[in-house]
Design a protein that fits this description.
Arc Repressor Mutant, subunit A; mainly alpha; about 0% strand; elongated; about 70 residues
Length: about 70
Protein backbone atom coordinates (compact mmCIF):
# COMPACT_ATOMS: atom_id res chain seq x y z
CA UNK A 1 0.00 0.00 0.00
CA UNK A 2 1.54 3.30 -1.07
CA UNK A 3 0.99 6.23 1.23
CA UNK A 4 -0.23 9.41 -0.39
CA UNK A 5 0.55 12.98 0.61
CA UNK A 6 -0.40 13.86 4.20
CA UNK A 7 -0.81 10.19 5.19
CA UNK A 8 2.55 9.58 6.82
CA UNK A 9 3.87 9.50 10.36
CA UNK A 10 7.29 9.72 12.00
CA UNK A 11 7.84 5.96 11.72
CA UNK A 12 7.16 6.03 7.99
CA UNK A 13 9.52 9.00 7.53
CA UNK A 14 12.17 7.18 9.54
CA UNK A 15 11.75 4.05 7.44
CA UNK A 16 12.07 6.04 4.20
CA UNK A 17 15.20 7.78 5.52
CA UNK A 18 16.78 4.47 6.59
CA UNK A 19 16.03 2.87 3.22
CA UNK A 20 17.59 5.84 1.42
CA UNK A 21 20.60 5.75 3.74
CA UNK A 22 21.21 2.07 3.03
CA UNK A 23 20.82 2.65 -0.70
CA UNK A 24 23.38 5.45 -0.57
CA UNK A 25 25.78 3.47 1.60
CA UNK A 26 25.76 0.57 -0.83
CA UNK A 27 26.35 2.80 -3.86
CA UNK A 28 22.90 2.50 -5.39
CA UNK A 29 21.55 5.13 -7.74
CA UNK A 30 19.64 8.07 -6.28
CA UNK A 31 16.66 7.26 -8.51
CA UNK A 32 15.91 4.00 -6.65
CA UNK A 33 13.23 5.49 -4.39
CA UNK A 34 9.84 3.86 -4.86
CA UNK A 35 7.89 6.44 -2.83
CA UNK A 36 5.27 8.68 -4.41
CA UNK A 37 4.43 11.06 -1.55
CA UNK A 38 6.68 14.13 -1.69
CA UNK A 39 7.51 14.12 2.03
CA UNK A 40 8.57 10.46 1.91
CA UNK A 41 10.65 11.07 -1.22
CA UNK A 42 12.42 13.90 0.57
CA UNK A 43 13.09 11.70 3.62
CA UNK A 44 14.47 8.94 1.35
CA UNK A 45 16.66 11.43 -0.52
CA UNK A 46 18.02 12.90 2.73
CA UNK A 47 18.98 9.41 3.83
CA UNK A 48 20.51 8.67 0.43
CA UNK A 49 22.65 11.82 0.61
CA UNK A 50 23.89 10.92 4.10
CA UNK A 51 24.56 7.32 3.11
CA UNK A 52 26.26 8.35 -0.12
CA UNK A 53 28.63 10.56 1.87
CA UNK A 54 29.68 7.53 3.92
CA UNK A 55 30.04 5.44 0.73
CA UNK A 56 32.20 8.12 -0.89
CA UNK A 57 34.53 8.31 2.12
CA UNK A 58 34.95 4.53 2.17
CA UNK A 59 35.24 4.16 -1.62
CA UNK A 60 37.02 7.26 -2.97
CA UNK A 61 37.83 5.54 -6.29
CA UNK A 62 34.16 4.70 -6.91
CA UNK A 63 33.17 8.35 -6.60
CA UNK A 64 35.50 9.43 -9.41
CA UNK A 65 34.56 6.57 -11.75
CA UNK A 66 30.86 7.48 -11.54
CA UNK A 67 31.56 11.01 -12.74
CA UNK A 68 33.33 9.81 -15.89
Amino acid sequence: MELVENQWDIDTLDKAYRQGYMAGMTGRDEQCSHYKAEMLIEAWEAGWIDGREVFSRKNPDEQHSELA
